[in-house]
Amino acid sequence: xxxxxxxxxxxxxxxxxxxxxxxxxxxxxxxxxxxxxxxxxxxxxxxxxxxxxxxxxxxxxxxxxxxxxxxxxxxxxxxxxxxxxxxxxxxxxxxxxxxxxxxxxxxxxxxxxxxxxxxxxxxxxxxxxxxxxxxxxxxxxxxxxxxxxxxxxxxxxxxxxxxxxxxxxxxxxxxxxxxxxxxxxxxxxxxxxxxxxxxxxxxxxxxxxxxxxxxxxxxxxxxxxxxxxxxxxxxxxxxxxxxxxxxxxxxxxxxxxxxxxxxxxxxxxxxxxxxxxxxxxxxxxxxxxxxxxxxxxxxxxxxxxxxxxxxxxxxxxxxxxxxxxxxxxxxxxxxxxxxxxxxxxxxxxxxxxxxxxxxxxxxxxxxxxxxxxxxxxxxxxxxxxxxxxxxxxxxxxxxx
Length: 400
Ligand code: CTP
Known about the structure:
400 residues; alpha/beta; Rossmann fold; 5-stranded parallel sheet; elongated; binds cytidine-5'-triphosphate
């Protein structure tokens, strides 16, 4: 469950910080990549050297690195993480988190994080029982944070009561249980096409398009994160995949893409056709570079490329789900609906070039999902990682 997961481990200033060292070790042993963020008070209890040795990464505590002036981006960190665990979570940090008091790196990272957050409170019994702590924890739970309840036992004050941070093994178990509940694509195989295709004119030139592949890659990462085995048939892009469950097949032309997609589709439960496929290829492709100093202007003869989505749609089995994309400049819904029919899609993800900050090269997108039965779901402008989540949610609901 933890393999390859990006975890932020937030450590606050409390005696239980010594247990965070063991927690960090367990997370790393389980295969997670862990970034420690510690509050200034946390460093009074445990040294960054111990933590960076175990995590293999410099520990983050300040907004800026003093000697270089480089900025630690809490926004990037928040987007990188699959989960954030704050252990120990002290009364002070819990209060800041509940009320948005962003005066240290840990709380700013929390406020920017899009991932699930787990808090393991640790404090003395009277602090734990105080109405303000109770109210803050209730508030944090109501925001969707996961509270890992502290145990009853002997505390640092030698008093006995509720306030001992939960044991590291149980914190790991709670996070693993969450990840396993999110694996709604476990046992499923998904084929995704992404990026542009290049159709060669001669050895140095091609016909292509502006597709960056970002949307398809975000969907591949989302499917893999949710447990699917993913085959990503990718046109030429400069992106990388990070999840080991993604098998990437690099292709260049539409015809190469068809061959790879067709083969993968035979054993897939779902196919998501995200690639911007060139409609034509060059029939009279030159084997040597076309030179400028010729009397005649060269003529490029185009031939129609195969429609990959329609080819798969024609052989789709009842248990398979086929999803297409439509990028339109006008008459959007009508064009998208006709593509559902022509390509035998279960649903189509429509984006319009008229929407600002959507489509090619951007990190955001604004889509409407249109189903074969005509049902339409419009979504707001969002980062492509969140759009990917919406699309995969739709896939999962239809697989059930
Ligand atoms: N598609 C495909 N193979 C093609 C063309 C398109 O698999 N040769 C897929 C795309 O990946 C997308 C959907 O079909 O999921 C719609 O692509 P689009 O380019 O919008 O549609 P076209 O059929 O090419 O129609 P047009 O260019 O006329 O809009």
